[in-house]
Amino acid sequence: MVSGSAKKRGSSEDPPYARYAFLNPYNLSLLMGAGATAAATGHWWIAVCAGATEAVWMLFAPDSELLRRTWFDAKWAESKTYDAERRRELKFRTLLPNDQQRAFQLREQRTRIYQLAQDNPSLTVELLEPELAKLDALYEDFIDLAAVCGRSERHLASFDVPSMQKSWKYYESQKKTFPASDQRHEVASKNLEVISLRMQRLEQVRKNLQTSRGQMDLMENSLRLLADEIVTVADPSELGGRLDELRIGVQAIRETSQESEMLYEEILELDEAPARADASRRR
């Protein structure tokens, strides 16, 4: 049975202490320097000593609490921050121009809240950090929502309602014209079913899109209100309470986003179904 500590050590979320201990300029420079010196002088005992020293270093350095506190953990935090910012930037580039502008303004509002909170003498930096960290999550949620909304809007813009209605009338006529034993009747029925499902899915996407847009507006308005109120906040818990109120809807936002994504994929599949049915009918 694997212990909890062993599981934790093997987690992908753990800092790669062994990699930090080995792949750093100081360690690699010493190894290469020792190897070059040994090769140049012919004294291979230098390389052997360097290898032994490296083995001892790699045995103890990754588990050193001192090195973790003073070096490795800081490097891990920096790496996570960089990855998060890079992930946000990649998402930002996929947004529609208007949503990019809104996201940029929200990021500026976040920065303004940081500054206002720091300027308030009643709020200490230590107490602010865990509360204001929630702003980063809100900003990323906003970008995720904007990305989903953009994809949904692009698909809805390409949806040809008159063509869909024309197809509905055509297959409805086919179904009425041919008897149930005729293969064309069966194909027409399947096309009518698919068209009906597409209309239902698209209507749900519209509803989710409106809900998501409303939630994005709520996030923007709430952050503006937070900036207005923060200058009078005397208790850090008040700030945290306001941010917690914003975070309450985050899970619902993500569920809405996932639902929109699934509906979007279903619609793409349904778009191909009539063509497949027509091909089958022609055969």
Sheet with most strands: none
User: Strand percentage, roughly?
Assistant: under 5%
Mean pLDDT level:
77
Radius of gyration, whole Å: 30 Å
Strand tally: 0
First-last Cα distance:
59 Å
What share of the residues lie within helices?
A: over 70%
Q: What does the overall shape look like?
A: flat
Uncertain segments: 1-10
Please, how many domains?
Answer: 2
The computed structural class is mainly alpha
- What's the number of helices? 11
What is the quaternary state of this protein? single chain
Q: Give helix and strand order, one letter per element, not per position.
A: HHHHHHHHHHH
Quick structural gist:
With 283 residues, the chain is mainly α. It has eleven helices and no strands.
